[in-house]
Design brief:
With 130 residues, the protein is an all-alpha fold. It is built from four helices and no strands. It starts with 33 loop residues before the first helix and ends with a helix. It comes from Arthrobacter gyeryongensis.
Length: 130
């Protein structure tokens, strides 16, 4: 096939599920009340997916976690990683000042080690979620 070397990238903005090579085999009709329909549509819009995608994702999820909830967790971890990076930058500025004054507190060195280890753990967690 032409796309044998194609590597799939996780698309965070996709509303529909990907097409399957064999196509759709079964159709399920679902009867809901007006209130249930409104709640499904509202939640699907909040999560930026279609109602069928929302229902299938929720029903087949082992962890009861939707794709959108996973995206939110990834975004939060990335935000935390950025916060740690800014903190590391601040510690580097302390180090630069310490080099200029010849006084560097030992606590700053330990804090930098801790920040780096936490950043590595966050990266590993993001990779695990992907």
């Amino acid at each position: 096939m032409a796309d044998e070397g194609f590597t799939h990238r996780f698309n965070l903005s996709r509303r529909r599920r990907e097409n399957t090579p064999a196509g759709t085999k079964k159709r399920r009709d679902l009867w809901v009340t007006v209130e249930e329909e409104a709640a499904l549509v509202a939640r699907a819009e909040r999560e930026k997916v279609t109602v069928p995608n929302l229902l299938i994702t929720a029903a087949l999820s082992e962890t009861q976690e939707t794709t959108t909830e996973r995206r939110a967790a990834i975004a939060e971890l990335m935000s935390l990683h950025n916060l740690l990076a800014r903190s590391s930058n601040n510690i580097n500025q302390l180090a630069r000042q310490a080099n200029a004054t010849s006084e560097f507190p030992a606590e700053a060195r330990e804090a930098l080690k801790h920040i780096r280890s936490v950043a590595m753990r966050i990266d590993d967690a993001i990779d695990g979620l992907m």
